[in-house]
Amino acid sequence: FILLFLFNKAMTQNYDESKVPDYTLPEVLKTESGNVVNNKSAWEKVRRPELLTLFAENIYGQMPKDFDSIRFTITNEVADAMDGRAQLKQVTISVWRMGKSVDIHLVLFTPNNRKKPVPAFLLINNREDSTMDATRKIKSEFWPAEMVIDSGYAIAAFQVADAAPDDKDTYQNGVLQLYPKQLQADNGMKAIGAWAWAASRVMDYFEKDKAIDAKKVALVGHSRGGKTALWAGANDRRFAIVISNCSGNSGAALSRRKFGETIKLINNQFPHWFNDNYKKFNDKEDALPVDQHELLALIAPRPLYVTSASEDLWADPKGMYLSLWNAQPAYGLYGKHAALPTEMPAVNSPIIHSVLGYHEREGIHDLTKYDWNNFIQFANYQYYGK
Ligand code: GTR
Asked: Is the Cβ atom of 312 under 6 angstroms away from ligand 1?
């Protein structure tokens, strides 16, 4: 039985670099009809929309933008949270469409010593509710609110389950109630699309909150949340910085490497994350018109930070670095040269002072204070050049 199990594993996932197949990545700067894109205008008018459509069509599903109304209700406000260092606001973001509504619950801390609107970090929270405990009785490294506040940033989070339960049988109970046609379409949005949609509704709120500098919002997600952060950042250019932590397969990692998790494995385990068309690419990575470096390219020219962890081979650290490396041409069109080293940086050697940042943290698949500290340094560099 054990032998059979091992055999099975070996058949479905590879952790051996020498067994990574030869592959050719689709070119970021070449259109489907074969035209070379060599300036920002052709990128923005032709190639960028084309790539966005290809990702929507084949992987993440459509991103509906219409709704009837949105309302922000402050349900709790504490002026002197965190021993007086921060103001707490809990906001219910209610969105209505065709008589149906969804509520996204935001927890937001803003530093009290601010003189003007402050930049913010927003976490797409795919852990339990207590991770974003508004009372701060429970403190989690996954959302180290005190540390971010003490660095001069606002910190916010919402729970993915508000937008779509992370479950193949119930993911429809949220945003998708507003867009029932999505459920019938092969290119319809599913859970990851709904989570990304919710991140944009939080951005709608930030634009109305005078304490927040909505032009300086960094979107953060870990793992499935990290895949979501990339998709949200690609669609919604109001996010100034995108941070994708240990996002792995169908996140930052190149699918064509088939290292660790694969498209087939992810589709089988999480059929409710990606659209139905994506299932056609199980074991057919080379047939995909895109690879994940092109999703990263859609963030250009905005700063993007990608992380991995040394023990998280399932998420393919090398595949994520190569993906970031291959996104550079899009940044080049804007005169932003990341100049990433060809060799992947050593463990715990972050690249911070660059429009494309990266680190591989020592340890397991997680979001930790080490990661957050680097996100803060990265934002400091992007916003203040220090
Ligand atoms: C895993 C999944 C990964 C990643 C992870 C997570 O089981 O295979 O793609 O999303 O869950 O979200 O922690």
From this structure: no
224 lines ligand 1 (CB under 6 A): yes
**The tokens of 136 are what?**
């701060």
Say if residues 109 and 86 touch (Cβ distance below 8 Å).
yes
Ligand 1 pocket residue status of 360, Cβ below 6 Å: no
pLDDT averaged per 10 residues in sequence order, the chain, 386 residues:
56 91 98 98 98 99 98 98 98 98 98 96 98 98 98 98 98 98 98 99 98 98 99 99 99 98 98 98 98 99 98 98 98 96 98 98 98 98 96
Residue 85's Cβ-count burial label (10 Å; 0-12, 13-18, 19+) is middle
- Give the Å distance between the CA of 266 and the centre of ligand 1: 8
State the catalytic residues: 223, 365
**Cα end-to-end distance, the chain, whole Å:** 57
What is the CB-side half-sphere exposure of residue 369 using CA atoms within 13 A?
8
The Cα–Cα gap between 27 and 43 comes to 13
DSSP codes of every residue in 325-346: HHHHHHHHTTT------SSPPP
CA-wise closest residue to 242 among 362, 334, 378, 141: 378
pTM: 0.97
CA atoms within 13 A on the CB side of 92: 8
